[in-house]
Amino acid sequence: xxxxxxxxxxxxxxxxxxxxxxxxxxxxxxxxxxxxxxxxxxxxxxxxxxxxxxxxxxxxxxxxxxxxxxxxxxxxxxxxxxxxxxxxxxxxxxxxxxxxxxxxxxxxxxxxxxxxxxxxxxxxxxxxxxxxxxxxxxxxxxxxxxxxxxxxxxxxxxxxxxxxxxxxxxxxxxxxxxxxxxxxxxxxxxxxxxxxxxxxxxxxxxxxxxxxxxxxxxxxxxxxxxxxxxxxxxxxxxxxxxxxxxxxxxxxxxxxxxxxxxxxxxxxxxxxxxxxxxxxxxxxxxxxxxxxxxxxxxxxxxxxxxxxxxxxxxxxxxxxxxxxxxxxxxxxxxxxxxxxxxxxxxxxxxxxxxxxxxxxxxxxxxxxxxxxxxxxxxxxxxxxxxxxxxxxxxxxxxxxxxxxxxxxxxxxxxxxxxxxxxxxxxxxxxxxxxxxxxxxxxxxxxxxxxxxxxxxxxxxxxxxxxxxxxxxxxxxxxxxxxx
Length: 483
Known about the structure:
Pathway: Lipid metabolism; fatty acid biosynthesis. 43% of the residues lie in helices and 15% in strands.
């Protein structure tokens, strides 16, 4: 059986196994019967009887056949450890320096400078964020070699740190996945890493590009599927965004935004399905779920890399972007919630949707409370206002969105690697305890949304002295970035 077939089989097996576990629960039978009895006693519209009766018939017909299935459990996937880049302080670019350099480039008019100044002020990031050396020059150096130099600068240190922390060598890596959205050289970035570390000839390497800020979560999802096929393996994920080739030197406001928002960062993540990894790993991958809306033209065109009228390349962000992001997120969390939320939360959500559709269209749809099953949240770091809006949708308080706001404030939007700076923040604050679940939400162009649910499997402490938050974690939380 080839790899594609194996992956499909693994996904189907996982879905079927979960469905059978759900149907085997005696409580489901009692619940469905009770719902139907209640609907009959209240003389509800016949349309409401379809759902409980359908599930009841499915339960009865399936329950007697469950013993015929002998489905093997999927291999558990462990997050052994991860590392995040802490850029050197001399790469720091205060707002005044950024705007002064932009003025001296003689590219931008006064309206463009003023627009970037307002964007920086409202971005939610601090004066401590960093840009790579190529963007410190006037004008910026955006040719190929500078981008390759940046790759070495952001990927090699985090990989070195991760190998040191996990006591592994490069020859212990069986699967390598590198993600970078905007820079896709040849040879690929994964080949660059393999060459640098003289990795094995039989390593399974993958290179993801054009996946936007969700790329790291997508890489984890890919690694999970590969680890279901390849037994006794270690998978290394390297996530970054190369900024030197993404600088926009034009005057269209919709393309200038990314000049102000994206900042330097990278992360290295080690996953494993080896039995011995359970003893040393921090987390177990509990659930992954991915949705996308590229089939819809408005969604597809909401963030697009293209040339302006003068032939200068940049990423256009349309006015539809926030609405599209909301729709993409809602479609992901509604299906994810159906698979893991308590029955009570699912019922309240389902009934509210039915009432809105058939009885009162002005009725608000009930948003389930995910905090009943998840303790920590790593949200998309797209801006202070966006973070707070997502928090509002998910019914999160200030402490729940703190990791996202503080990561944005201290490091800026680091694209796909931002999720790992948030998790590092939670660990540095000693908030993650054994048994806790962490939800990472990756959202990117396409658009697409990926949810990763991790379960902590051992006590985590002492991380305040390690990683990107070392020496500064006690400064946070601050009053908070602008919204």
